[in-house]
Amino acid sequence: MWLNDLYQHLNPIAIQIGPLAIRWYGIAYLAGFICGYLVIRSLNRRWKLDITDDDLLSIVIGVAFGVILGARLFYVVFYGAGYYLAHPASILAFSEGGMSFHGGLVGAIVGGCLVCRHLHISVFSVADMAVCGAPLGLFFGRCANFINGELWGKPTDLPWGVIFETGGNVYRHPSQLYEAILEGLVIFFILFAMSRKLPPRPQGTFMGTFLMLYGIFRFLIEFVRLPDAQLGYLFGTGWLTMGQCLSAPIFVVGVCLLVYAHRTQRPQRGCLKA
Predict the structure, then answer these.
(1) N or C, which end of the chain is more exposed by having fewer CB within 10 Å?
(2) Gap between the Cα atoms of 43 and 244, Å rounded
(3) Distance between CA 47 and CA 110 in Å, rounded?
(4) pLDDT at 54 > cutoff 60
(5) Is the peptide bond before 249 cis (omega within 30 degrees of 0)?
(6) Which residues lie below 8 Å from residue 20, measured CB to CB, with a gap of 6+?
(7) Which H or E run includes 187?
């Protein structure tokens, strides 16, 4: 159980300076946003969209705020199971954990759209570039989940099983790393390969591909990942989780976007006329 040996030597706190603790989870978010910006800037130049670096930075900042607020809001609404109604002061207690990817996605879209509309920049092209970098953020975030020992999977006797501190004295699927590989690295390399084609593929192609693949991978991984304790399995099924319920429509939207992109063949573009 080599992976278990690695986990036992990991500390969720990366740097401790007196009372100040910098956790790997916060570093993961920062690394994700930085990598996302670098990917967007690289594609902007490769696709010759002529969006200024200052405008790209403004968009990334808007997306970052949207991700954080959306991820927290969705967790409170869909995963809180009534806890936050009884403890409203805990809604903004980000240090206690509790973030939802699905909410972060919605927040990113809203935040990015608001900034793009203000700057008169094509929302679809920015979204296509952004999702090419988003999987790197997912990769870092899931690795941080592993370090934190949270969101672990069902018991397993596979050689890479891990005994998590809060998961009892049993080896479990490191489902966080499954997600890091599939939702992070696999999707990133697929989108990266697609982005090399010039002229770039039509608007909506990359967003559609990202959503479709994420929906598939997340739905499948939920079969070996335990649901949140406060929710359990939904509708008495013994297998259906909230993550699957939220991922299914993401897959459908992704397919619809791919159909839209194929039919409209709208070219990628940068700034729009005011």
Answers:
(1) C
(2) 32
(3) 24
(4) yes
(5) no
(6) none
(7) helix 187-195
